[in-house]
From TrEMBL:
Cofactor: FAD
All residue ranges annotated as the Beta-lactamase hydrolase-like protein phosphatase-like domain in the record: 3-110
Protein name per Swiss-Prot or TrEMBL: Sulfide:quinone oxidoreductase
Annotated FAD/NAD(P)-binding domain residues: 150-263
Keyword Transit peptide: yes
Annotated Pfam families: BLH_phosphatase (PF04273), Pyr_redox_2 (PF07992)
């Protein structure tokens, strides 16, 4: 007997026998629900036998038989009512546990998010893909089978999504494309480091979504609830169904602020800030300007995160501002990194260490932020040095810049598109899904081992567009991704270490060394970041003008 927990109150299992009842009792259950009709299997005990054994053990027992594959809306409602009346915790069972898990999923549709339901059942080993539309529809059977169909559907209107749409339109102007995204505002997120450093105004990093969707591309302003790749369908909140010929998945990733205890309650006050949010980046600069002495902590969570250099960029620009004001000697700067290295590509570390030393910053590796008390200005870190017990340490602060833990979005993690870690599972060269041949992915959400940066998406979008067009013509992929990503590390106001690299840490510089040597801080790289990259983003990348982003062709064998 294998019992799987869905909630603290309900677990499900395959068929139980009278001999299992005592073990069920000993496990703490107070009631059982049978969802398997008598006589379904030759070796199956009857409910009467099990009910008698349950009552002898002091357990309540309910019989709600469900024919396999025929869970009705009324069945789910009856299951919910039975659970409400029974003492918990409850064990529900059928032949495999699937019917019981399905009943629970449908009964919870109005009370829990679709992602939470799918996550609980997936963790228990049950695939609810067959009833996902009903879950999205509040547990009720929907009456329609498809509201719209497009040749290409793109999930996500961030940098990757809009760039991919524009690149496709540039290649096939008549292509019927739809972008699905509920947001009203599109952000140039690489600019938030500069906002936090007092260089950009926040308004420079935001534009209305409607002004950026490429002409002729349909914008479906809605959130995705689930995927049905076996039906070439996407289920939106409200149970609208969008069908596709080919799908591009690029909704970005999820900033998991709630994973750090107490963080959400104190963000934007008590000296706790983050350049990872549009509304908080100005507070970073406000704190830096106001601080004359004390301890400033800059945190970095476990990988993967978007723009892995951003946590230390905030440190460098803050320290440079204190240096220019002559108060750096009064500051205790600490970089608390959950990882074990300053930067993942060793060629750039010497230049960065020069600035760590210049600013007299303390590097605390293997320090992962787990809790914060804003009013008392205290933070707690789990220190996980290899081959040593995890130790929790308390550190007081005057200012703390937090980089939040990051995961794939909930609706991606519980979908059939995800790998075991929750990211969209793609071939790292072609960016095509490993299982579903008409699905591609790019940007932060996919699992290729590259740096998650806007610069990476700028290169990936034309590759995906090129390969989709080739697929439409009946051919094999023609373009490949080499893992390129770029991280302009703002080591001081006016100078940048321009890290450009691909898979395996291979250096992939865009400029000759005499123009920009990426392993050293240069003013030319700062000019690129401050003056050139914003227009390249707004007027190039998002418009399908693939400046310095020509797809690399797959070499013929």
């Amino acid at each position: 007997m294998e019992i799987k927990s869905l909630t603290a109150r309900l677990s499900v299992s395959p068929q139980v026998t009278a001999d299992d009842i005592q073990a069920i009792k000993d496990a703490g259950f107070r009631a059982i629900v049978c969802n398997r009709p008598d006589g379904e299997g030759a070796d199956q005990p009857t409910f009467a036998e099990l009910s008698k054994a349950a009552k002898a053990a002091g357990l309540e027992a309910v019989y709600q038989p469900i024919v396999a594959g025929k869970v009705s809306d009324e069945d789910a409602a009856a299951f919910d009512m039975a659970l409400a009346k029974l003492p918990g915790p409850v064990l529900a069972y059928c032949r495999t546990g699937t019917r019981s898990a399905t009943l629970w999923s449908l009964s919870q549709a109005g009370n829990r998010s679709v992602a939470d339901i799918l996550a609980a059942t997936k963790a228990a080993g049950y695939d609810m893909g067959g009833v996902v539309r009903r879950i999205v529809n509040g547990g009720k059977t929907p009456t329609d089978t498809g509201d719209a169909r497009y040749e290409v559907v793109i999930v996500g209107a961030g940098a990757g999504g809009i760039a991919a749409a524009a690149s496709l339109k540039a290649r096939k102007p008549g292509l019927e494309i739809a972008i699905i995204d509920p947001a009203d505002i599109h952000y140039y997120q690489p600019g938030w480091t500069m906002v936090g450093g007092g260089i950009f105004d926040p308004e420079q990093t935001a534009r209305t979504m409607g002004s950026l969707i490429p002409q002729g591309v349909h914008w479906i302003k809605a959130a995705v609830a689930a995927f049905e790749p076996q039906n070439d369908a996407i289920i939106l909140d409200g149970c609208r169904v969008v069908k596709y010929g080919r799908l591009i998945v690029c909704p970005g990733l999820k900033l998991d602020w709630n994973k750090v205890e107490g963080l959400v309650q104190t963000l934007g006050q008590n000296g706790v800030t983050s350049n990872y949010r549009y509304d908080l980046a100005p507070y970073t600069w406000q704190l830096v300007k106001g601080l004359k002495k004390g301890r400033a902590i800059f945190t970095q969570p476990p990988m993967p995160i978007k723009c892995a250099g951003a946590p230390q960029k905030a440190l460098y620009l803050s320290a440079d501002a204190w240096h220019r004001r002559g108060v750096l000697k009064n500051m205790d700067i600490q970089f608390n990194n959950a990882g074990g290295v300053l930067f993942g590509v060793k060629d750039y570390v010497p230049a960065l260490m020069d600035y760590i030393n210049k600013y007299d910053a303390t590097l605390n590796f293997f320090h992962n932020l787990v809790a914060v008390d804003g009013p008392s200005k205290k933070a707690w870190f789990d220190v996980a040095v290899p081959d040593a017990p995890v130790e929790r340490v308390e550190i007081e602060f005057n200012m703390m810049h937090v980089c939040p833990p990051q995961t794939a979005p909930d609706f991606i993690r519980v979908s059939p598109l995800a790998d075991a870690a929750g990211w969209v599972d793609v071939d790292q060269a072609t960016l095509r899904h490993k299982t579903y041949g008409n699905i591609w992915s790019l940007g932060d959400v996919m699992n290729a081992p590259n740096a998650k940066t806007a610069a990476a998406a700028r290169i990936q979008a034309p590759i995906v567009a090129e390969n989709i067009v080739a697929d439409m013509r009946g051919g094999s992929p023609v373009a490949q991704y080499n893992g390129y990503g770029s991280c302009p590390l703002t080591v001081e106001r006016g100078k940048i270490v321009l890290a450009e690299f691909g898979y395996g840490g291979t250096l992939l510089p865009s400029f000759p060394k005499f123009l920009i040597d990426g392993t050293k801080p240069t003013r030319a790289a700062w000019f690129l970041k401050e003056r050139m990259l914003p227009p390249v983003y707004w007027k190039g990348m998002l418009k399908g003008r693939e400046w310095m982003a020509k797809p690399e062709k797959i070499a013929a064998e």
